[in-house]
Amino acid sequence: MTIAINQPLATDALRVDGSRLWASLMDLARVGATPKGGNCRLALTDEDRQGRDLVAGWLRDTGLDIRVDRLGNIFARRPGRNNDLPPVVTGSHIDTQPTGGRFDGNYGVLAGLEVMRVLNEQSITTEAPMEVVIWTNEEGSRFVPVMMGSGAFAGMFTPEAALAARDHDGISVADELTRIGYAGDMPVGGRTLGAYFEAHIEQGPVLEKEQLQVGVVTGSLGLSWFDVVVTGQEAHAGPTPMEYRRDALQTACALVSDILTLAEPHAPHGRVTCGEFRVFPNSRNVIPGRVNFSVDLRHLEPAVLTTMEQRLRELCDTHGNNAGIEVELFEVQRIPPTPFAPKLVERVRACTEALAIPHRDMVTGAGHDAVYISRVAPTAMIFVPCVDGISHNECEDAKPEDLEAGANVLLHAMLQTAEPIPPTDQAQ
Ligand SMILES: [Zn+2]
Predict the structure, then answer these.
(1) What is the pLDDT of residue 3?
(2) Kind and range of the H or E run holding 235
(3) How many angstroms is it from 294 CA to the middle of ligand 1?
(4) d(CA 222, CA 334)
(5) What's the alpha-carbon Rg for the chain, to the nearest Å?
(6) For the chain, does the N or the C end have fewer beta carbons within 10 angstroms?
């Protein structure tokens, strides 16, 4: 074999080993396997420990240096040529829901492992160091808040608050971390990440329906929650003629019909949902005196979300005034939209195109570790399809070829960001 010393580094031809990635996913899926083919590895249980031990062992075998922070977040580092540069990081979580699947989270971590394995095999050195991270308790099923490890890393709440969280049996995160041997000594957060990439199953139906292999995630939808209270006049259903009624339900129904059209001018990223509805006194022969319902508005752009909120206010005023009925609007919670880093999103898109993988831009409506990390580091996500769009379910499934395609995009996006060093330079 001859080594072409003067050739440019042929990193374009690099590919992950899809069958090795699949084998790792299936090996991890044996830990906490459920009868219906899913996974149960609740955060910080014995099963979570076994999963952590297994994956950390693989990362160690790949020559990575493992460090654990006080919240049990695991960072596996592959040195670069200049280790003063902030690392290019990828990862996700390996805890699951009680009846969770084999891919949610696990895919992002093991795709990162596969990237490191390929770089080692090809003896590729990068300018910046690279890391694979396993975030603690993303699912939030056993301990609240969800996305605990990444949220604390991003400063959304203190590590102390997270460590003090308790499950239904009164057992704390701090105690469980110590018990399973993952209470590290590294501080939580407070260091710069050069970039963060997360590969994840879509958890929705779009990619599969459109027969695409990769979703280039441009950001996460902002969310605005309201409660609406419509107050009319309770009266007997029999003696009160229709024209004398102040029926709260009649107004609420007309109002909801209009509210549900509110996202139409803001397709494809606008979302509006009225998911909760309560009628008082909820009695067959009483004209409803009061109706409470919820409104959930989402959009990717802050200005559009504000426009949607404004429209909601107008609709409430108009319907209230027209019917002579009081309509009150209460703000419940607002999470601003989180656009990902345009440069990294563009890099993911360009890598996907260079690999000739069918793709589209999309946004995430669900929470991910990447959403928190995007507040403290340039971030991008790569989605791959999952069968029937189903997740948080034991029958969650994904196709090996789609997982491989997403991992190849991750490989090239990370490599370009960490900057491969030509072999001629490496020898010096
Ligand atoms: Zn996940």
Answers:
(1) 46
(2) strand 235-236
(3) 26
(4) 8
(5) 25
(6) N
* Residues in the 5 Å CB sphere of ion ligand 1: 104-105
CA distances to 292, 294, 406 from 282, rounded to whole Å, are 12, 17, 51
- The Cα 14–Cα 5 span in angstroms is 17
How remote is the CA of residue 1 from the centroid of ligand 1, in Å?
43
pLDDT of 139-148, one tens digit each?
999 999 999 9
Predicted TM-score (pTM) of this structure: 0.86
Using the mean position of ligand 1's atoms as its centre, give its distance from the Cα of residue 92 in Å. Answer: 7
What pLDDT was estimated at residue 367? Answer: 86
Ligand 1 mean position to 397 CA, how many Å? 14
Q: What are phi and psi of 400, to 5 degrees?
A: -50, -40
- Give the residues across from 235 on adjacent strands: 287
Q: Are 218 and 300 in contact, with CB atoms under 8 Å apart? A: yes
DSSP string, 148-210: HHHHHHTTSS-HHHHHH-B-TTS-BHHHHHHHHT----BPSS-S--SEEEEEEE--SSHHHHT
* Single-letter code of the amino acid located at 322: N
pLDDT the model gives residue 370: 97
Q: d(Cα 26, Cα 102) in Å, to the nearest integer?
A: 8
Q: What is the pLDDT of residues 306-324, one digit of tens each?
A: 999 999 999 999 999 999 9
Q: Which amino acid is at 422?
A: P
- Note the pLDDT tens digit of each residue in 202-233: 999 999 999 999 999 999 999 999 999 999 99
Question: What is the SS3 assignment for 102?
Answer: coil
What 8-state DSSP symbol labels residue 11? Answer: G
pLDDT in tens, 110-129: 999 999 999 999 999 999 99
Q: Where are the beta strands (DSSP E) in 258-378?
A: 271-273, 277-280, 286-287, 290-299, 326-335, 338-339, 359-364
- Structural contact between residues 372 and 157, judged by C-beta atoms closer than 8 angstroms: no
Q: Which pLDDT belongs to residue 392? A: 87
Tokens of 228: 């609406």
Q: What is the pLDDT of residue 335?
A: 83
What residue ranges of the chain have pLDDT lower than 70? Answer: 1-9, 424-428
- What's the 137 CA to ligand 1 centre distance in angstroms? 10
Question: How many angstroms does the Cα of residue 305 sit away from the middle of ligand 1?
Answer: 25
3-state DSSP assignment of residue 34: coil
Q: What sign results for the dihedral spanned by CA atoms 354, 359, 360, 361?
A: negative
